[in-house]
Each structure stands twice: as structure tokens, then as C-alpha cells.
Amino acid sequence: MSKIAKLTLLCILFVYGTAAVAQIDTPQPSPAGSVYSKVGLTDVTVDYFRPGVKGRKIFGEGDSYLQPYGVLWRTGANSGTKVTFSTEVTVAGTKVPAGEYLIFSTPGKSEWTVSLYKDLSIGGNVNGYDAANEVVKTTVKAIKLSEPVERLTFNISDISEDNSKAAIQMSWADASFKLPIEVSFVEDVIKAIEKQTKVNPVVYVQAANFYFSQNTELDKALEYMNMYLAVGENSKQFWNVHTKAKIQAALGKKKEAIATAKESMETAKASGNDFGYVKRNQDLIDSLK
Asked: Fewest beta carbons within 10 Å, which of 122, 123, 199, 264?
């Protein structure tokens, strides 16, 4: 083969090879989405694909609906929806190890059946669903939305004040459901407190605040707060003295709590900027009389 022929062949192969691997990035009909939140000390992430309503009937009774009642659904588009937990959680009363799970669901008029599925390899293939791979299967209330949601949306909602509970919420078209989750972190924090207070006295006030916020180990909370306030000029921190008064009140030590609140109030008045702690202390004193 001549040099010219070889060169021509190489050019042809280059052109066809480039054409074979070249891709054009275009918007997807069901774009990828992700939602994340920390619940307690647990990272919760939902990765999914977001189909649109596009004028279609989505949930209802019969074959005229895209996703009929009573039919298993991948709870999204494409390869389905995946939830990831960084620690063990409790889902609808069932312990679930840390890890990744697919979310499958079956819609209904008054309730949905929702399951977490451990075999990620099936993706959104409902035909490959095997009940043996269910980690959780539960029923939840069907929520009727007053305002329709055009694109499938997941949220991590209803995070409780103490950060121990939340819900994974799916909303699409006129329907929604919430899958309840619970996390446990108190024991882990207590272990960390016991470890850190041995090397860092500043942790004492953090520990006291944590115990008080969780309404647990209140005697220890008071002990730690006293240890912290006894160091250096810490007793002038009227906000922490106020917390001590609240701990004493929670323990039923009303007389001591009132005396501590008065101490905090006087220090706050002398500070030049009480950040509202004069009133907070007075309110606490009034509540204990």
C-alpha cells in the first residue's frame, strides 16, 4: 500500500472514530436531582430523576393513568430513586443499616406502600423486583396536594426540634407521601463528651447544654456547668449562668435556680449589652414563684 493510500486510510479511520465517540450534551426529559440534609448526626441523601407531568394523568385508578393505583413504581424516572444513610436509622419502626437503598412504591387512593430495596443492580427495573431484597416495607398515608407539582420532587422534611426525627417526602402531580425516619445519636454524643472533657475543659459547657437540650443526665449537666463556670472568668458569662439556672429549675431546685438567675441578671445588667438576658432571667424567676 502506498504512503498516500495509508494516509488516506488513517484519515478515514480518524474521522469515523471521532464521530463514534463524539456526543452532544442536551437537556434530559427527566433531569437528575438530589436532596441532602443532616438529621441528628446522620447524612441523608436522596438521588433521583425528575419526570414532568406534561399534561398527563399521573396517579389514579385504571390504565389511563401513567402510574395506576396498585402498580409497583420505581418512584421516579430512569434508574429510579436511591436514598443513602451514613449511619443506622429507623425507618417506619424498622432498623436499617447505614448504606444505599432504592425506593420503590405502590400508589393508592388512601395509602401508599413504600419499600427500601437493597439490590441496587436492578435500578428502576420493577420486573426484577424480589421481595427477598426488601429491607423495609410499610404503608404510609396518601397526601392529596392542593397545588400540583409539575416535576417530581423529593424533600427531607419535618425535622424535629431535637433532630431525632424527619421524613423523606415525595411530591408529584397532585400526590405526596412521607416516609418517617428516626436517628439515634445521644449515646454517641455522650461517649464523645466523656472522651473530650478529659482533654478539653471547654467541652464541659457544650456537654451541659447538650444534656439539658435532650432532657437527660441533668445532674451531670449541672455538674459540668459548675465545673466550667469555676474556671477563670467563666462565671461572668451570664448566658451560661442563665443555663445553669434553667438546669436547676429542671431538676426541681427552685430556690437555687432563682438565686442563680438573679446572679446572671446582675452580671448581664453590668455588661453594657445584656442580649435580652435580663428579661430571660426575670421570666425564669417569675415562672418559679
From this structure: 199
- Residue 265 confidence (pLDDT) above 50: yes
Residue 75 to residues 99, 103, 232: CA-CA distances in angstroms?
A: 19, 6, 58
User: Looking at residue 3, what is its pLDDT?
Assistant: 57
Helix (H), strand (E) at residue 243: helix 238-250
Cβ atoms of residues 68 and 61 within 8 Å: yes
How far apart, in Å, are the Cα atoms of 36 and each of 31, 95, 270?
Answer: 17, 21, 44
Q: What are the residue ranges spanned by the domains of the chain?
A: 32-182, 186-288
The burial class, CB within 10 Å (0-12 / 13-18 / 19+), for 20 is exposed
Taking residues 206-219, report their average pLDDT: 92
Helix (H) or strand (E) segment spanning residue 264 = helix 254-270
Distance CA 191, CA 237 (A): 27
Q: What is the mean pLDDT of residues 125-138?
A: 97
Answer whether 268's CB lies under 8 Å from 240's CB: no
Alpha-carbon distance of 150 to 84, in angstroms, equals: 25
> What average pLDDT is seen over the chain?
90
Query: Which among 169, 88, 167 is positioned nearest to 135, based on CA atoms?
Result: 88
CATH topology of domain 186-288: 1.25.40
Please tell me the pTM assigned to this model.
0.66
Structural contact between residues 195 and 207, judged by C-beta atoms closer than 8 angstroms = no
